[in-house]
Amino acid sequence: MYDIILMVIDMDISLIRGVGSKSIDYLKKMNLYTINDVIEYYPYRYNIIRVIHLIEARDGEVVTIKGVVDSEPRVSYINKALNRMAFKLRTDNFIINVTIFNRAFYKNSLKLGRVINLIGKYERKNNTFTASDIKFEIINGVKIEPVYHLINGVKNKGLSNLISECFNMHVDIDDYIPRYLIEQYEFMDKLKAVYNIHFPTSTDNLKKAKLRAIYEEFFVFMFKMNYLKYKYDLDNKGLTRNIDKNKLNEFVESLPFKLTDDQLTAVDDIYNDLVDAKRMNRLVLGDVGSGKTCVAVIGLYINYLSGYQGAMMAPTEILARQHYESISNMFKDVGLRVGLLVGSLKKSEKNKVCEKLENGEIDILIGTHALISENVKFNNLGLVVTDEQHRFGVNQRSNLQNKGIMSDVLYLSATPIPRTYALTIYGDMDTSVIKTKPNGRKEIITKALKEKDLKNVLFKMVEEIKSGHQIYVVAPLIEDEEGESNLNDVKKLKEKFDTAFNNKVRVEILHGKMKNQEKDEIMEQFKNGDIKVLISTTVIEVGVDVKNSTMMVIFNAERFGLATLHQLRGRVGRNSLQSYCYLISNQDCERLKVMEESNDGFYISEKDFELRGEGDLFGTRQSGDMVFKLGDIRRDFKILAQCKTDASKFIADNIVNNFSNYPQFRNVIKELEFID
Ligand code: ADP
Ligand code: MG
User: Fold this and answer.
1) Which helix (H) or strand (E) holds 81?
2) 336 Cα to the center of ligand 2, angstroms
3) 230 C-alpha vs ligand 2 centroid, how far in Å?
4) Distance separating alpha carbons of residues 194 and 54, to the nearest angstrom
5) What does the pLDDT look like over 325-344, one tens digit per residue?
């Protein structure tokens, strides 16, 4: 027999010994296609099994003991689904009665005299050990048992065996930590580390193994980020710009408000970047309603003054349309030509927009990010603004660059992740932070209420409507067809409110399943005040701006994360009127208390980190970029920060010879370049 030495780990799982077509189907369902996938399918937690002596066992406590089978097992069938097996076990100097349910299939393995481990509870009074499981591989002392996320039909043990088989194949895995760093940090060898994550030989080794794996994940992430920046900076000749500063000042002065200090600083940053010989790659980070869009619009105007076209991309069509309206409005006195390009336009309309764009008859084009994916040709594009940056992420960034778009780029993000994290995660960009909200903004008064207190909310709604204001209502579902979930839904709430207001108040619904045209009409009528109450799902989450709305009521608020609640609440309080937010929930929920406590997105994001501990970083998971197998940006932040430094130096040292000593990184780069 030959050992198979796999230099390339992208080998199909069918090569693993004992893997047949049925297993392959299961593995594919778990998104495991190659041996590498399997090997890097890490446990999400571990059971620490400590074998103890019976005399140490406290009554009723779950323990693991070791002993010898001392009588032939007897099985009784209680009914079809339930059987009970009983036998005697000798452990140390005791003989105890063991019972175990639904393990009759072990009967033949339990030969007299066989040594086994039992997990279960001991009851001293009647000398009975009620076992929950039997282990046949003998554990002495301590065993750390990996626990994997599974799907139906796959057992933990089976998966573990399969992973073990992979290691028997003498696999050789690509290592994404450069050798000099491995030496510097005295990291465990890659294969040994991966092995120890699956089959830890001690808690100490497990810790070292995980540290290494986390470092590697973060290093690759930071490599991608920094590489994009490097590529951007290389051959980074900015556009030549002559800007008439008087015209710019005139425009800023013509705005109906004075810019806040933070806005002024951000505008300065953008101005300097645009004039500078380097291309701009800047992120404006600020809470909902802090005035980022306004800053971006000024950026677009600067770009226009220097003779270039601009583009603004939004994550949804509703938002794109809204930007289109407000931006057209802001630019109407200075004569800028603003165009809109979104998916729902007729083909002929699209063609017309594209034609104008190519001929230079449109100064600013607004659309969804399809703008970049589609074959849209600009005459002389100078600045791209992408709104709600967290919905785009590395992939989109890379996409922009891959399309050979050499213009300046400005990103806007309302994801209020704590600043230190943001600066690291968006480390490839320059950053302007807008901390303060425009003057005259009042805190939104926020209350968590039970559903039985809905009367108070209705009362408040009537008051607001009488004052001529509009109200948002949010529910988790459009329609609860099966009526199973006990959740409020948009359609039922409409009936409820129609009844409550005796059909005297115009209440309408808005949700993702409606046609675009319908949505637009509803939004339009809500904006101009014909519709008083708008009930919707979270489609209004991002950016919708109706200044006259002063109240938001969120049903089943416990269903939403802090990030979403905060984004939703940001729809009200958009001018100097006092606004209100009611969070309706029958559960006592810590998140709702945080919402009552504060309006500050950065504070809320800190709390979100605290409450959740691990996991999804304030909604960034949806971008797909920040899913780490083992790393946790919060818990392992120091490692992440170190990786940023290390990756940056690594790139600086190796980009000139195209990573010739590191072919594995050439593959990472190739992947980045093929992203679409
Ligand atoms: P963001 O994009 O950060 O959510 P916007 O730029 O849309 O914020 O601004 C929110 C609202 O505040 C808009 O209606 C905008 O016209 C208004 N606004 C922006 N800057 C100021 C300011 N300095 N003073 C008063 N209102 C402002
Ligand atoms: Mg420049």
Assistant:
1) none
2) 22
3) 16
4) 35
5) 999 999 988 989 999 999 88
